[in-house]
Amino acid sequence: MQHTEERTFIAVKPDGVQRGLIGGIINRFEKKGFKVVGLKMIQVSDEQAKAHYAEHEGKPFYPRLLRYIQSGPIVAMVIQGYNAVAGARHIMGSTDPNKAEVGTIRADYAQVMEYNIVHGSDSVESAEREIKIYFNENELFPQGKCMSELVIESLDAD
Ligand code: IDP
Ligand code: MG
């Protein structure tokens, strides 16, 4: 059986950075076996914020959402692994921290939807679109194979 890897865009949002949760959040994805293949701290520009959240334009919370994502630096990353898009969202929990399952990032670290600590792409298509907003291809390092061999390909052994 083949286990195809996906990549997804994850961000520690400004509240997560300010609260000192960068390491704790990255650790959750690494513990799962996902590879961090791109990583940087940035101040989100107006263009990036609008492009990232284009689907929410016109909604009541949209202006606050743009202010939130630009309220301080974020830690932007690309993670890679089997079923990485859905797997990462599972680790993050539901958008509303009060509905997120205990043990997920949002349930454990956040109280309200407006400050929910972390972003993760919702589909493979969104992931590819969002990765391009924040990363050039030469800033990504997907070549390392050791993790896939240990976590994915070993499942195929007889
Ligand atoms: P997601 O981050 O779980 O994919 P989306 O529906 O894509 O959730 O919303 C993007 C972000 O907008 C959320 O993470 C949250 O910060 C914010 N948001 C979404 N819905 C609301 C709302 O009803 N009130 C306030 N903020 C919201
Ligand atoms: Mg979303």
Describe this structure in words.
- This protein is of the alpha+beta class.
- The protein has a single domain, classed as Nucleoside diphosphate kinase-like domain (Alpha-Beta Plaits), CATH 3.30.70.
- It has eight helices and four strands.
- Strands 2-3-1-4 form a four-stranded antiparallel sheet.
- The longest helix has 11 residues.
- The chain is globular.
- The site of inosine-5'-diphosphate has 8 residues, from loops.
The bound ligands are: inosine-5'-diphosphate, magnesium ion
Please give the share of residues in helix: 25-40%
CATH superfamily: Nucleoside diphosphate kinase-like domain
Judged by helices, strands and strand pairing, the structural class is alpha+beta
Strand order of the largest sheet: 2-3-1-4
| Largest β-sheet summary | 4 strands, antiparallel
Order of helices and strands: EHHEHHEHHEHH
Total individual domains? 1
Low-confidence stretches: none
Please provide the count of β strands: 4
Outline of this structure?
With 158 residues, this protein is of the alpha+beta class.
List keywords for this structure.
single chain; 158 residues; alpha+beta; Alpha-Beta Plaits; four-stranded antiparallel β-sheet; 8 helices; binds inosine-5'-diphosphate; binds magnesium ion
Topology, element by element:
Elements: E1 5-12, H1 14-18, H2 22-32, E2 35-42, H3 46-52, H4 62-69, E3 74-82, H5 84-92, H6 105-109, E4 118-120, H7 124-134, H8 146-151
Antiparallel strand pairs: 1-3, 1-4, 2-3
The structure holds inosine-5'-diphosphate and magnesium ion.
Inosine-5'-diphosphate binds near residues 95, 113, 116 and 122.
